[in-house]
Specification:
By secondary structure, the protein is mainly beta. Among the domains are: 100 residues, Immunoglobulins (Immunoglobulin-like), CATH 2.60.40; 94 residues, Sandwich (Immunoglobulin-like), CATH 2.60.40.10; 96 residues, Immunoglobulin-like (Sandwich); 94 residues, Immunoglobulins (Immunoglobulin-like); 99 residues, Sandwich (Immunoglobulin-like); 97 residues, Immunoglobulins (Immunoglobulin-like, Sandwich); 83 residues, Immunoglobulins (Immunoglobulin-like); 97 residues, Immunoglobulin-like (Sandwich), CATH 2.60.40. The chain is 8% helix and 42% strand. The strands form 20 sheets. Strands 21, 23, 26, 27, 81, 82, 84, 85 and 86 form a nine-stranded antiparallel sheet that branches. Strands 64, 66, 69, 70, 72, 75 and 76 form a seven-stranded mixed sheet that branches. Strand 57 and strand 58 form a beta hairpin. Helix 1 runs antiparallel to helix 2. The chain is elongated and about 215 Å long. The relative contact order is 0.05. It is found in: Cell membrane. One of its GO terms (molecular function) is cell adhesion molecule binding. Belongs to the immunoglobulin superfamily. This is Nephrin.
Length: 1237
């Protein structure tokens, strides 16, 4: 239909063509019923066009449609009012006739509304969508009275609003950016009509320079708008939103998508708060507390104190709410701290360098000591020269001298440079020594305006020497008589003198001294010098004897002396009998003379024989010692054989002393020998050796020495003299020390068997219990032999062992003692044979090595067993081919301990990461142990954390090393006060220590403490219950806690009376947070899994092999090559930890994922993460292992981990989530880089 005047024929064909097109449709979208309806409608329209309309009905439009623009989903109505109500009216959409049927078949959302009788044919469209965007016209069919009519074409424009904004990084997340760096953000608005208008707001401010790209959408007439903007975040943007705003005419209000900016920026400079006005000025001994504060920074600053450039281990704390880090340095100032530079450094992970605030200490310190050189002891009226010298002080001190209460003038004063920037003061003094100054105090005093409240002095006491003034002796009157043995006391006294006079006693010009060693009884007792006031005394006590008779006793003190004399009455000092001959025979004459050597007064002499008085005659007198008198008398006798052995006695009697002294002479008469009934016929001797062995004594006896067992036997005694002969037989029994003749060494027995240790000895005499046994052990408790049976028969002893055990194995000593020294000792070893017992220590069950085919690893296997053990190795149950040059085994044996060292060269992750089994075998059995070869990893948590001491301000901790992951590990302590927000971190120094005292705690405060281990691969995490403790410090009035092993220190008590409603709210909130965490963790895990599956495309054949290889990260050290290598998997694993001082994060403009402690590695790894405890290393050739058998010693680490000597682990824990993103291989330390195996 081209117009109202167009011929009807073409119209019919046009209508039919449209209907056919509608029936055919685009493809086969319309179903058969719909096609039939449209075909029927076309035929109907064709018929209607041929019908005639009465010409009386006027034709025309009274209402025309208008152009409309509506939003998708709205309802629209296009007006069409016809003046001829009876006309056939239909609508056309982009030239497609919709038909006169008001329901418009095939278009369920279309229908015509209005009253046809009134000519109302309005097109009503519901829920408009993009397919409705077209041109529409209202057509009136031709009638007999008029041509067809067509309304002007109008456009219906459908606006499609954007549904969502796709923001990269992902909307709703928190991205970590570094302040000042440029990041690209894109925002995509898809499928909209017209194209969306996109703007960006950074912290509420519009972002300029937006690049916009509009492209075709998923359907015709739809557009996709992509806007990109370069964002340079600043520190003020931290925690703010970056918003993408999408605007469209189809939107009532713009749509938005945002991300939260976590902006990393350096902290502000550190500030040291100096107590007082004069910065740096301190006094020695002062307890100095210096707070250091660094504000700002994300993450908050890590603070490090330095003293003269050396780190000082001080804990620091962070307050994340105000982004403030604070650390307090506490030190006691010493003189050597003068000039020391105290620095506080502040830095975080994005600092270009450390910011430092330094203070140089100016230490004021007094002299630590004052010394007076020279002697203050001198004779009177002589000069002494003294020097007063101080230790170094700052500032210098002045010196002055005092004697008693008067000040002395020095002769010279000098100041010299001293230690620690101080000065030394010296003062010389010359002093005349006077007697009246003796005992006065001489003082050297140091003073200074800087030490007005302190006095420094050194004092000495003058010692002026002068002699005594008077000397005398107190005692018996001179010439008084005393009986010998009388105790006499003499006292020497002197007045005055300095030094104290040494009173010396003399006897006849010889110094009196006590005998050494003292005699019994002591005849001379010399007292000590005693002083009473100015009087000195020394006592001499004598027990008088003959030598003291008329002797002169003198006492001297310097040039003074005094003396006295004593008369002693004493009996004869010696009464001697002299004979004219020594050989007497019956009938010979014997002349005896009795001589009294000395006595006072003289004595009377008399003779008797066996109690019968003899007649005597006087002999000539002789001189007498000790100033006494001598006397002598003689007697004459005719002897016979019966007189042999009789005694002749001389007696000396003193009437004045009433005392008699006697002396006897035994008569020896020679006569023929006779054997008496008491003759000894059996002699016992002890064996000796060497030198002359016998002699005949003058009395006829045979003396033997150095007797040997060959001298044992019968001896014939033959006695002869000029008077006759006699004979007798004497038996000599020689006793000799035992010797061990036979001892079976070693003696062997199986476990549980019985055996006798036999010891055979040669000895005389042989005693029933002369055998004894000892076990030689270091532990005395193991020396008991109660469970063994001791037997002896004759010269053989036995130690019987029943049901032998391993404890009984060792060295035994057979001791034979028959009473003749020395006892015999023999050593025998008891060897208890037993099946192998492989040791299973935890540190030897896991070995780490780099699987890069360049490193080597050594597996240790140690076992006990007798007889010797043979070792075999298997890998994953398959015997190991030791002919392979990659495998080398060294075996060592020492006693019952055996070791096998298996060295694997060129370790390959694919071939050698396996379970190795070491089997030890001997003739009695076998045993085995398993050793796993794995790669390097993060360390395991420390073991056995416990509290060993507790005070109000500190807690002592102790733990054991866990598996170090194959790398040097360090330990860090994180703790918090439960009532105070924030955590504190302390590094354990030295790094390998297993004990540490955490200080700086507050009394009566609850704390929670964590212990972490870390190496270059990461830390051990906080999830293990064994690495955390809860403690409560005691109050100041409570005693400090003793060491204990309980993990929690808080004791259960009565539940506090908390309000019920807040408690229920708190519990509900915790449960809600727990559920959210679980759901978020699950979604996060799924997303990570999908990400991992799409990292690399590998062939089906190699996929599994790569998966297994990527499970490991290897590193191995060897002492021979000093080889360090690493393999890093491309699979996303746990983050690597690096010191923040050296680490610069490379942050891509993509979503930063949070660090996770358990991820893909746990799911895919072939072996449990904490199954093993230790890593073994190779440090040298087999000969360098030291004591392999009692204990396999592990040498110190032979390599140095790169970087600083000590990396502060506290910097690791303050890192934000963005630092843990996927890292390029070149961001690792050089030692950890390597090719993927």
């Amino acid at each position: 239909m081209k117009g109202p005047q167009t011929d009807c024929g073409p119209c019919r064909w046009q209508i039919m063509d449209m209907v056919a097109a509608m029936v055919r449709g685009p493809g086969t979208a319309l179903k058969t019923p719909t096609r039939a309806s449209l075909l029927f409608m076309g035929l109907l329209i064709t018929g209607l066009t041929q019908s005639r309309i009465p010409a009386s009905v006027p034709r025309g439009f009274w209402a025309l449609p208008e152009n409309l623009t509506v939003v998708e989903g709205a309802t629209v109505e296009l007006k069409c009012g016809v003046s001829a109500p009876g006309s056939v009216v239909q609508w056309a959409k982009d030239g497609l006739l919709l038909g006169p049927n008001p329901g418009i078949p095939g278009f369920p959302r279309y229908h015509m509304e209005g009253d046809p009788a009134r000519g109302e044919f309005h097109l009503h469209i519901e829920a408009c969508d993009l397919s409705d965007d077209a041109e529409y016209e209202c057509q009136v069919g031709r009638s007999e009275t008029g041509p067809e009519l067509v309304s002007p074409r109008v456009s219906l424009s459908i606006l499609v609003p954007p549904k969502v904004l796709q923001l990269t990084p992902e909307a709703g997340t928190t991205v970590t950016w570094v302040a000042g760096q440029e990041y690209m953000v894109s925002c995509i608005s898809g499928d909209a009509k017209p194209a969306s208008d996109i703007t960006f707001l950074q912290s509420g401010q519009a972002v300029p320079s937006i690049s916009v790209d509009v492209s075709e959408g998923s359907q015709e007439k739809l557009f996709i708008t992509e806007a990109k903007v370069s964002v340079t975040p600043q520190s003020s943007d931290n925690g703010q939103l970056l918003v993408c705003v999408g605007s469209s005419p189809a939107l009532v209000s713009p749509i938005k998508a945002s991300i939260t900016m976590n902006v990393l920026f350096p902290p502000g400079p550190p500030i040291i708060e100096w107590p007082g006005l004069n910065e740096g000025l301190v006094r020695a001994g002062q307890n100095l507390e210096l707070p250091c504060t660094a504000r700002g920074g994300n993450p908050p600053a890590t603070l490090q104190w330095l003293k003269n450039g050396q780190p000082v281990p001080i804990a620091w704390g962070t307050e994340h709410v105000h982004a403030t880090a604070r650390s307090v340095l506490t030190m006691t100032v010493r003189p050597e701290d003068h000039g020391a530079q105290i620095s506080c450094e502040a830095y975080n992970s994005v600092s270009a360098g450390t910011q430092e605030r330094s203070i140089t200490l100016q230490v004021t310190f007094p002299p630590s000591a004052i010394t007076i050189l020279g002697s203050v002891s001198q004779s009177e009226n002589k000069n002494v020269t003294l020097c007063c010298l101080t230790k170094s002080s700052r500032p210098k001190v002045l010196l002055r001298w005092w004697l008693g209460g008067r000040q002395l003038q020095p002769t010279e004063e000098t100041v010299m440079d001293g230690l620690h920037g101080g000065q030394i003061s010296m003062s010389n003094l010359t002093l005349l020594m006077r007697r009246e100054d003796n005992g006065l105090t001489l003082t050297c005093e140091a003073f200074s305006e800087a030490f007005t409240k302190e006095t420094f002095k050194k004092s000495l006491t003058l010692n002026v020497k002068y002699p005594a003034q008077k000397l005398w002796i107190e005692g018996p009157q001179e010439g008084q008589h005393f009986r010998t043995g009388t105790r006499v006391r003499l006292v020497c006294l002197a007045i005055g003198g300095n030094p104290d006079p040494s009173l010396i006693w003399f006897k006849d010009a010889r110094t009196v001294m006590e005998p050494r060693p003292p005699q019994e009884p002591r005849r001379v007792q010399l007292g000590n010098l005693e002083k009473s006031g100015s009087t000195f005394s020394r006592e001499l006590v004598l027990v008088l004897g003959p030598p003291d008779n008329k002797a002169k006793f003198s006492c001297k003190a310097g040039q003074l002396s005094a003396s006295t004399q004593i008369v002693v009455l004493f009996p004869p000092t010696n009464l001697t009998i002299l004979a004219n001959t020594s050989a007497l025979r019956p009938g010979d004459a014997l002349n005896l003379t009795c001589v009294s050597v000395s006595s006072n007064p003289p004595v009377n002499l008399s003779w008797d024989k066996e109690g019968k008085k003899l007649e005597d005659v006087a002999a000539p007198p002789q001189s007498a010692p000790f100033k006494g008198s001598a006397a002598s008398r003689s007697v004459f006798l005719r002897v016979s054989s019966r007189d042999h052995g009789h005694r002749v006695t001389c007696r000396a009697h003193s009437a004045e002393l009433r005392e008699t002294v006697s002396s006897s002479y035994r008569i020896n008469v020679l006569y023929p020998p006779e054997f008496l009934g008491e003759q000894v016929l059996m002699v016992t001797a002890v064996e000796q050796a060497g030198g002359p062995r016998h002699r005949i004594l003058s009395n006829g006896a045979l003396q033997l020495w150095n007797v040997t067992r060959s001298d044992d036997g019968l001896y014939q005694l033959h006695c002869q003299n000029s008077e006759g002969t006699a004979e007798a037989l004497v038996r000599l029994s020689v006793h000799y020390a035992p010797t061990i003749r036979a001892l079976q060494d070693p003696t062997e027995v199986d476990v549980g068997g019985s055996v006798d240790i036999v010891c055979t000895a040669d000895a005389n005499p042989i005693l029933p219990n002369m055998f004894n046994w000892e076990k030689l052990e270091e532990d005395e408790e193991d020396q008991s032999l109660d469970d063994m049976e001791k037997m002896s028969k004759g010269s053989t002893g036995r130690l019987r062992i029943r049901h032998a055990t391993l404890v009984q194995a060792g060295a035994y000593q057979c001791i034979v003692d028959n009473g003749v020294a020395p006892p015999a000792r023999g050593l025998v070893r008891l060897v208890v044979r037993f099946a192998p017992q492989v040791e299973h220590p935890a540190p030897l069950t896991k070995v780490a090595a780099a699987g890069d085919s360049t490193s080597s690893a050594t597996l240790h296997c140690r076992a006990r067993g007798v007889p010797n053990i043979v070792f075999t190795w298997t890998k994953n149950g398959v015997p190991l081919d030791l002919q392979d040059p990659r495998y080398t085994e060294h075996t060592y044996h020492q006693g019952g301990v055996h070791s096998s060292l298996l060295t694997i060269a060129n370790v390959s992750a694919a071939q050698d990461y396996a379970l190795f089994t070491c089997t030890a075998t001997n003739s009695l059995g076998s045993d085995h142990t398993n050793i796993q070869l794995v790669s390097i990893s993060r360390p395991d948590p420390p073991l056995g954390l416990k509290v060993v001491s507790l005070t109000p301000h500190s807690v002592g901790l102790e733990w054991k090393h866990g598996f170090d992951g194959g790398l040097p590990q360090k330990f860090h302590i994180r703790y918090e006060a439960l009532e105070t927000p924030g955590f504190l971190y302390v590094d354990v120094l030295p790094p390998q220590a297993t004990t540490f005292t955490l200080t700086g705690l507050q009394p009566s405060t609850r704390y929670r403490v964590w212990l972490l281990a870390s190496n270059a691969m990461g830390d051990s995490g906080l999830t293990d219950k064994q690495i955390q403790l809860s403690i409560t410090t005691p109050g100041l009035d409570q005693p400090s806690g003793e060491p204990y092993d309980q993990l929690p220190t808080e004791q259960p008590g009565e539940p506090p009376g908390l309000p019920l409603l807040p408690v229920m709210c708190a519990v509900g909130g915790l449960l809600l947070l727990s559920n959210i965490s679980c759901v978020g963790g699950f979604l996060w895990w799924r997303r990570l899994r999908h990400l991992t599956e799409g990292i690399s495309e590998k062939s089906e054949a190699g996929l599994e092999e790569d998966r297994v290889r990527n499970e490991y990260e290897e590193s191995q050290w060897t002492g021979d090559q000093d080889t360090r290598s690493s393999t890093v998997s491309t699979t996303e694993t746990e983050p690597h930890l690096h010191p923040l001082r050296d680490f610069r994060p490379q942050l891509p403009p993509t979503l930063e994922e949070m660090a996770y402690t358990r991820g893909l590695e746990e799911e895919d790894v072939a072996f449990p993460g904490h199954l093993y405890d230790e890593v073994e290393r190779v440090y040298g050739p087999p000969g360098a292992w030291g004591p392999l058998y009692d204990e396999v010693q592990m040498g110190p680490y032979d390599v140095c981990w790169p970087g600083d000597k000590y990396n502060d682990p506290g910097r690791i824990y303050d890192q934000v989530a963005g630092d843990w993103g996927t890292m390029a291989s070149d961001s690792l330390p050089f030692e950890l880089r390597g090719d993927l195996v």
